[in-house]
């Protein structure tokens, strides 16, 4: 089975490395070759174009930054989809919206390529340790075909439903993630203004029944003033934008999500975009200092 992986960002490079660690014969492509030298040294075959990378592939994974990148690399007039073999399987784990996944599926179908949308729950750490959760939308036989590959990169695969449902569920999950983090940050600011110490709040709030489990990990980052990217704030803002776009398409009202989108956008404009999204707390502190 010939496997190709396209998109070697923080997540994609870690996922590809886990495939290599499990002795998968892997072909890769990335816009910038020098960013994948370590994968080449581990045994990956590098191709100079996405077309060359997919020509002989039975399975193609993509992990790209958004709909625009997938459109350019895969779906445009010069996209790699035209070079894929008939009946090959494309698994897209990129950050896209459900209507885009439906479009990709239709275009793949037009050239006799099978399609699965399989975004992931998890950030840099789980990607490196092979503990991602894949949220898959597509036909069960297609997902079963790549189950062993998904297990090399993740600890669990959830077959959510037909094509676009994996992307839909990912959108729901990240909307909750963003709102919970922002609410925690605001609660921290309020507590500190009321005279409670930052350390006390970080030690106690995450363990309260009202707190989401992931906040315990984020509290440690805040305690150590560690804003190293696990899931960049700018990517969270992009997810919220895609959620509001989908809400418009489906005639749904997302008042809180639209507000959160602008909060994260303002943080990005103020220089927090490349930091972990937990830095929304530091952004709130920045705003408070300006008001004082």
Can you walk through the features of this model?
The chain has 292 residues and is of the alpha/beta class. It contains 14 helices and 9 strands. Strands 3-2-1-4-5-6 form a 6-stranded parallel beta sheet, with helices on both faces. It has a 3-stranded mixed beta sheet with strand order 7-8-9. It starts with a strand and ends with a helix.
Order of helices and strands: EHEHEHEHEHEEHEHHEHHHHHH
Helix-strand category: alpha/beta
Strand order of the largest sheet: 3-2-1-4-5-6
Point out poorly predicted stretches.
none
- Which band does the percent of strand residues land in? 5-15%
Percent helix range = 40-55%
Terminal-residue CA separation? 62 Å
Major sheet attributes: 6 strands, parallel
The total count of strands amounts to 9
Give the integer mean of the pLDDT values. 95
Overall radius of gyration: 20 Å
- The helix count comes to 14
Categorize the overall geometry. Answer: globular
Give a quick precis of the structure.
This protein has 292 residues and is an alpha/beta fold.
Features:
single chain; 292 residues; alpha/beta; six-stranded parallel sheet; three-stranded mixed sheet; 14 helices; 9 strands; globular
């Amino acid at each position: 089975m010939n496997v190709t992986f396209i998109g070697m960002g923080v997540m994609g490079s870690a996922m590809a490395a886990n495939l290599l660690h499990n002795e998968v014969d892997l072909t890769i492509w990335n816009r910038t070759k020098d960013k994948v030298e370590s994968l080449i040294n581990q045994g990956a075959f590098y191709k100079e174009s996405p077309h060359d990378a997919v020509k002989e592939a039975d399975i193609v994974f993509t992990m790209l930054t958004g709909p625009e990148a997938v459109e350019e690399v895969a779906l445009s007039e010069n996209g790699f989809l035209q070079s894929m073999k008939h009946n090959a399987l494309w698994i897209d784990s990129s950050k896209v919206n459900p209507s885009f996944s439906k479009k990709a599926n239709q275009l793949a179908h037009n050239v006799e390529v099978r399609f699965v949308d399989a975004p992931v729950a998890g950030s840099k750490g789980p990607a490196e340790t092979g503990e991602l959760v894949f949220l898959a939308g597509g036909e069960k036989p297609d997902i079963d075909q790549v189950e062993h590959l998904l297990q090399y990169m993740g600890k669990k695969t959830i077959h959510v439903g037909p094509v676009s449902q994996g992307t839909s569920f990912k959108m729901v999950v990240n909307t909750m993630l963003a709102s919970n983090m922002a609410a925690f940050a605001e609660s921290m600011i309020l507590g500190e203004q009321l005279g409670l110490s930052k350390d006390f709040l970080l030690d106690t709030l995450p363990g309260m029944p009202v707190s989401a489990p992931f906040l315990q990990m984020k509290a440690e980052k805040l305690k150590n003033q560690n804003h190293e990217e696990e899931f960049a704030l700018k990517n969270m803002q992009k997810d919220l934008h895609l959620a509001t776009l989908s809400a418009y398409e489906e005639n749904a009202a997302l008042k809180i999500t639209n507000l959160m989108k602008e909060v994260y956008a303002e943080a990005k404009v103020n220089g927090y975009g490349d930091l972990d999204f937990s830095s929304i707390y530091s952004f709130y502190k920045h705003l408070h200092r300006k008001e004082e």
